[in-house]
Write a structure and sequence with these properties.
It catalyses: (6R)-5,10-methenyltetrahydrofolate + H2O = (6R)-10-formyltetrahydrofolate + H(+); (6R)-5,10-methylene-5,6,7,8-tetrahydrofolate + NADP(+) = (6R)-5,10-methenyltetrahydrofolate + NADPH. Helix content is 43%, strand content 15%. The protein is α/β, with parallel strands linked by helices. It folds into 2 domains: 85 residues, Rossmann fold; 124 residues, NAD(P)-binding Rossmann-like Domain (Rossmann fold). The structure holds NADPH dihydro-nicotinamide-adenine-dinucleotide phosphate, 5,10-Methenyltetrahydrofolate (GUE) and magnesium ion.
Length: 293
Amino acid sequence: MSATIINGKEIVGSVREQIKAEVGALKENGIQPGLAVVLVGDDPASAVYVRNKAKSCDEVGIYSEVYRLPAETPQDELLELIGKLNADPKINGILVQLPLPKHIDEDTVIDAINVNKDVDCFHPINVGNLMIGKNSFLPCTPAGVIEVLKRTGTEIAGKHAVVIGRSNIVGKPMAMLLLRENATVTVCHSRTANMEEVAKQADILVVAIGRGKMINRNYVKPGAVVIDVGMNRMPDGKLAGDVDFDDVLEVAGAVTPVPGCVGPMTITMLLQNTLEAARRANAGQTSAQHASH
Ligand SMILES: NC(=O)C1=CN([C@@H]2O[C@H](COP(=O)(O)OP(=O)(O)OC[C@H]3O[C@@H](n4cnc5c(N)ncnc54)[C@H](OP(=O)(O)O)[C@@H]3O)[C@@H](O)[C@H]2O)C=CC1
Ligand SMILES: Nc1nc(=O)c2c([nH]1)NC[C@@H]1CN(c3ccc(C(=O)N[C@@H](CCC(=O)O)C(=O)O)cc3)C=[N+]21
Ligand SMILES: [Mg+2]
């Protein structure tokens, strides 16, 4: 038996078509959503993601600005740029590419981003709103995974979902979104005992650990849907996920490919959030106003 390879390109394409149409409709009312992406330092992987983000904005008609700052940029200068972007009406979304150089405190930087422009959903207020189920931006990678599950017709409610990884960017918000969809959720991490046994209980297995090809068939229940968030540059120079794709393909029900699914889906959700931010800015409906009452 061989698993279905989830067609990421097709899903990404159809969500982006929808976003493009909605951006087009806003433009007819004289509104163009705008995204600012800030990259500090010259990490080559980050440079690729930032280029992809700008290109994807163009494709759907979102205005974008990219700021490339040298690695030694003082924290104050970065905060000053964020202050300017916070006040700029052309900019609806601000994304500061992580990780930042060591001399910069990531929490301080994230705190400085206007809550209503935090299209990553990394600001503590937006993270809090997510926890209590209030309307806020959805974190891009986890929201992209939910969209993939829904568009492949995967039932989530009542199913056992196991998330491997507990980072603030992926694992934790992923668990929260699956819970919102009424899955029974287990989160694994580096201190989890008997991880193969735990993972094998999953109907839906989401893997975000940053260990190239670590998750093989021993972690997978026959027929499970396996979502690979990992992005690793292997010693041979090739890109691979955290899942041993060829091995898992033989037992799983469906598997996402890397590259070609969760990565581009993450960018798609970023576009969606930027569109949503522009809508809210123009409706005068901001979560900061809600939060201040
Ligand atoms: N496609 C996309 O859009 C995105 C892809 N990524 C990719 O996803 C992967 C994860 O990213 P991120 O969450 O930021 O990574 P982090 O390094 O921040 O977190 C990794 C998590 O995995 C856990 N972990 C590490 N090794 C093991 C192990 N051997 N067994 C069990 N758990 C383990 C860690 O546990 P502990 O907490 O105990 O240390 C931690 O919770 C990376 O490959 C990254 O490149 C990330 C963001 C977006
Ligand atoms: N503030 C912030 N927000 C993020 O969302 C964020 C971040 N920082 N730091 C890094 C991670 C990683 N990430 C990816 C986005 C797209 C692809 C992507 O498009 N991947 C392509 C391949 C790209 C390639 O060829 O290298 C694919 O999987 O098909 C991957 C990874 C967002 N992240
Ligand atoms: Mg730092």
